[in-house]
Amino acid sequence: MYKFHIGDLVARVHPSSSIILKTGLVVSSDKRAFKIKWVSFNHDFFMEKQGDIFKELNNRYLLGTVEIDRNNVGPFLVLLNSNYCDGKLRRNKKKT
Length: 96
Known about the structure:
It is built from one helix and seven strands. By secondary structure, it is mostly beta strands. The strands form two sheets. A five-stranded antiparallel β-sheet has the order 4-3-2-1-5, with no helix packed on it.
């Protein structure tokens, strides 16, 4: 199981084909739950090409913010990139 932290890039994948359906950023986190702000979605899967009505509905309902309980993180939420290494925030070191 992944330990999601603020700033992590995550994805929701399709249960059978493993294609990425949505990508988002973890915007808040506590011991009980974390929130993801979805920033993009798979336009082909969500019928973006079918008409203007789908484009508006997809932007409204697919790119919202969702809270996920840490005890109910399903297998279809994956970590794409993390700002943390061994539980510690990675810092960019400036070269002098």
